[in-house]
């Protein structure tokens, strides 16, 4: 498995961190984590190797489609190819969310892979117009996964995570520092992208001719609701932007302020 690229330096957060709300924002869909395996995949096993190969291939495909963004089908008629370049961050977020689900269910190598997803968000997000619903849904799911990993318990249910018994599996100090940098970078990027205006059409464009007929009911609702977004209505999303990674920020504050025997 290729080691995830290192996150950049720290950035000062430009938004206040509001108290954690127990009520889901009315502007985004609630994000619930899938159930995980009762035990992580055995290290070095064929199942773990297959899992690593699958996830690495997903990251590679996402990277390829990002590099081809906006370039497929120009001046051509007919449906776009299945592996066409991304036309909105909504498409990127949908594929990254699928990776998050697979990694979470596996209960294996969660921290390095989820850090890679978070890094991909900060890398790809500025290249597209604002796709609010898909973006916030993905970020909310990442927030829950990271806050869960920091606690060693599912942040939604309170259940102990697989492989975390006896304090095993928790993030190292190095991983916590990397995560803090990614959180800061993501929040700054969200302020910038959302401040340019919520482009409702960006998520609508995610439904290409090739996807008609295989769009889920949830996808249809997401597209319809984003279609009503005012391009200049930043205030509608301001609170959601301020809440990006709110759970993780709280847990990181506790984790990094608490003396640890882990000096890695």
Description:
- There is one protein chain.
- By secondary structure, the chain is mainly alpha-helical.
- Helices cover 49% and strands 0% of the residues.
- It is built from 9 helices and no strands.
- The protein has helices spanning 46-67, 89-106, 110-124, 132-151, 173-195, 200-204, 217-226, 238-242, 246-257.
- Helix 2 packs parallel to helix 4 (132-151).
- It is globular.
- The two termini are 20 Å apart.
- Residues 2-27 and 198-232 have low confidence and may be disordered.
What are the defining features of this structure?
mainly alpha; disordered N terminus; 264 residues; 9 helices
Mean pLDDT level? 77
Radius of gyration: 19 Å
- The coarse overall form would be globular
Biggest sheet architecture = none
What is the quaternary state of this protein?
A: single chain
Low-confidence runs:
2-27, 198-232
Helical content class: 40-55%
Structural class call reads: mainly alpha
Number of beta-strand segments? 0
Q: Specify the number of helices.
A: 9
Element pattern in H and E: HHHHHHHHH
Q: Alpha-carbon distance between the termini?
A: 20 Å
What fraction of residues sit in β-strands? under 5%
């Amino acid at each position: 498995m290729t080691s995830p690229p290192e996150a950049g330096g720290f950035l000062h957060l430009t938004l206040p961190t509001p108290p954690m709300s127990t009520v889901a924002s009315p502007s985004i869909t609630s994000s619930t984590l899938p159930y995980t395996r009762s035990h992580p995949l055995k290290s070095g096993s064929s199942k773990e190797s297959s899992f690593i190969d699958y996830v690495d291939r997903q990251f590679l495909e996402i990277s390829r489609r990002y590099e081809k963004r906006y370039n497929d089908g120009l001046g051509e008629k007919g449906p776009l190819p299945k592996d066409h370049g991304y036309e909105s961050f909504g498409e990127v977020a949908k594929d990254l969310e699928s990776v998050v689900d697979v990694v979470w269910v596996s209960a294996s190598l969660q921290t390095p892979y989820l850090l890679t997803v978070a890094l991909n968000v900060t890398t790809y997000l500025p290249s597209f117009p604002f796709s609010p619903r898909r973006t916030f849904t993905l970020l909310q799911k990442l927030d829950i996964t990271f806050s869960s990993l920091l606690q060693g318990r599912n942040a939604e249910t309170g259940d102990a995570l697989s492989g975390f018994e006896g304090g095993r599996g928790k993030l190292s100090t190095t991983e916590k520092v990397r995560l803090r940098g990614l959180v800061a970078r993501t929040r700054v990027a969200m302020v910038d992208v959302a401040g340019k205006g919520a482009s409702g059409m960006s998520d609508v464009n995610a439904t290409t001719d090739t996807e008609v007929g295989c769009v889920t009911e949830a996808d249809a609702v997401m597209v319809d609701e984003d279609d009503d977004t005012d391009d200049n209505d930043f205030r509608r999303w301001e609170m959601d932007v301020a809440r990006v990674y709110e759970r993780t920020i709280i847990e990181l504050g506790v984790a990094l302020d608490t003396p640890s025997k882990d000096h890695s």
